Description:
The complex is a heterodimer of chains A (657) and B (185). Chain A contains four helices and 32 strands. Chain A has 657 residues and is mainly β. Chain A has a 22-stranded antiparallel barrel. The model of chain A is unreliable at 1-5, 7-51 and 112-119 (pLDDT under 50). Chain B has one helix at residues 2-22, and strands at residues 30-41, 52-62, 67-78, 88-102, 109-124, 136-152, 155-167, 174-184. The longest helix of chain B is centred in the first third of the chain and has 21 residues, at 2-22. Chain B has an eight-stranded antiparallel barrel with strand order 1-2-3-4-5-6-7-8. Chain B is elongated. By secondary structure, chain B is mostly beta strands. The mean pLDDT of chain B is 82. Chains A and B meet through helix 1, strand 5, helix 2, strand 6 and strand 32 of A and helix 1, strand 4, strand 5 and strand 6 of B.
Amino acid sequence: MQLFKNQIAAKFISIxxxxxxxxxxxxxxxxxxIEKENILRFGYSNSNGIxxxxxxxxxxxxxxxxxxxxKWTSSKTIYELNHLPVNITTLNFNSxxxxxxxxxxxxRVNNNESDYRFGNDQTIFIDTKPIQEKFTILFNGYxxxxxxxxxxxxxxxxxxxLQNINKIPLSGTLSISNRNEKIGYRVTGGYYGSFSTGGxxxxxxxxxxxxxxxxLNKQILFSGETFYNFDGGEVLDLRMQFMSYYGWDISPFxxxxxxxxxxxxxxxxxxxxxxxxxxxxxxKDGALGEINEGEGILPSQFEQxxxxxxxRWNSVVNSSSALQIKGDINYYKWNNIFNDDEDxxxxxxxxxxxxxxxxxxxxxxxxxxxxxxxxxLNIQFQVQNSYxxxxxxxxxxxxxxxxxxxxxALSSHSNAPNVSELYGSYKRSASVSESQDKRMFSIKGNSxxxxxxxxxxxxxxxxxxxxxxxxxxLQPFAESIQNSVEQKTLNSVRLSSTGEILRDAxxxxxxxxxxxxxxxxxxxxxxxxxxxxxxxxGLLKGDSEFLPTLKNNLQLNFQSxxxxxxxxxxxxxxxxxxxxxxxxxxxxxxxxxxxxxxxPEASIVNLFYKLTLKxxxxxxxxxxxxxxxxxxxxxxxxxxxGNSINRAFIFExxxxx
Amino acid sequence: xxxCTLFVTLFLSVVITTNLFSQExxxxxxxxxxxxxxxxxxxxxxxxxxxxxxxxxxxxxxLSEQLFLGSGIHFSYFKSKKEESIxxxxxxxxxxxxxxxxxxxSKIKLFTAGGIxxxxxxxxxxxxxxxxxxxxxxxxxxxxxxxxxxxLWDIEGVEIYTKYQTVFTSPNSTEFINIGTRFFx
Lengths: 657, 185
């Protein structure tokens, strides 16, 4: 009966959207190319496609794990924000949501390998869009709600304690910019709010801290940038960016709910085109993190700072060859602010306070060997967090026809443990059952970790028709990971009072089985304004049971000049097993059944509607977006201990004045 | 969720306004109306709350002779059958619907409509105290309406309808039925 109701609901929604789509609209819209909607914060669709391992325990704070096959507790994805990497992570959150960027209007996210720069398979590039040569006001606002509020059911069923369903209160950003040939500026401010925890874990959250229970998660964004073009072609570029976080979530380090805060800032000064495409940049990144007090949790406050100097040199050797050199020097410092030695009322997040001096030297040579064959070689030497590491990548690409190419890529990439994995510490005391005294659970870093190395080979066969009617990519690959940095569970229990799973764990190195897989992508115009996109990834995953054997994303887009874009997508992910969260029945004080650590398969259908108006009164453009996410209200979880993310409605307005 | 109600109101206004102004402005296609209906809770809800009246304002834009886009805001007050333990609540709904007319050559037309609706509940009374500050909550639902439409005196559109709505509550969805009339001027 419930399924029938859901189907009825979905049909109505479809009818409404389709009808509105056919009827609304105007006649002077500009044609658009097919695009992947970039609503990262909504989780509707990721701009990077299904190749991401987007782990998240709530609707927000997705842990981006790009191309590589790491566990969510140790994501090795690297963000390059305006060409400079972000090395600081708080509580091992490797999430775009914690970066000081306004991606609705002013930033673009790109991990397309064809835009290969100094990065590797694990790098996501985030760049500001150019400032327009006119006074411009850009804004966006959104609001939504996950369905499933109990409302009258609280009183109909007195055992019902659900109260804290995901909600997305009014959030938005505003930016003002202008420029001329010599000078320009852009100022951006924003606020994001969410009730992110969902009702599933209300009892757990309320038991940790009743004061913060039900409090809104909040983020405040501020950034300013300016540049000056010198007569000789040099560009001086200054940016200051800030992003805060205040709220509940399960962090990848603590792997249990905490209420925490984070203040991240970046100051970046760049001098570009000093001579022959040489650019020099200075940046200071800083993050102040705090775990707030809870039942059995002592508060901790800690900070990380980084001062870096970067050199980038792009040299055209000749008409068919180019050389890119980069060198980095980086001073990294971390320390606790609270000190648990004072009176035992706080805890240290870092077991050791120290500093690192890091270096990196990288060279990339690319060349057109013949008219149809090109090659690329990248070698990188790095001293990071006291680890000396060498990485390399080599690529050959041959055009079989004008529209068909084959590319062979071999890479060996090394990655050092970060300071949380080396020196992090989190302690929590709890009574596992009413009859037992409190005991301590701890997550600890490991200063003896070796650095990780991943070796990968891939062959990519690509077809891209010249009229953009058809794009096909087929990419078989194999990857081995040595010394994978992972949390190893020593002991896990489920508490009798709340059902919360707590673990004793520490970071360690693990050699994993070879992983082989195939990625397939097709994007084609079916007919007229109807486009079809499919991404599929199949894996022979060996002992990496936390990876899905199959991920699939199908999308139909109908684009019209008059009526905007309507999309329907189906996402499928096969079930996975997370052994580290399994609980033996003897340690399950909640219902003695044990927990198998299984993450069930996900089969999610989404609908999306976007209407673009150009121009609309004072607006140069105005976009209205409606997202119907998970319309059949299927079970959707990203890790076994996280919340279910259910059917949601989200409305967004994006505009330019 | 007060913000949600506000935003949905704004959003629906923007959608309708956008539709109006993105094309040639035809004010004659915009109709205002009044609504009064008998509001019946279904499923388990009717065990604890009785039926009530719902009143509100309507906004309707004619997309063609047969198709209309509509919205509005409706108010009602549900009185509890057990006030000592079950609170009374105000119900505010904001629908967005698409409506199709049939037999348009006839004086009496049939119509059906479907849409999405934001429902806000404001629990009041002593029994609502257990909710502390969370006595205002909102949830979306979808609905279907069928009815007849005719002209009466100078009133261009008089509608008699019945509407079935399911609200996406948890753990079980809740259902409501409206039987009422609307007048468009």
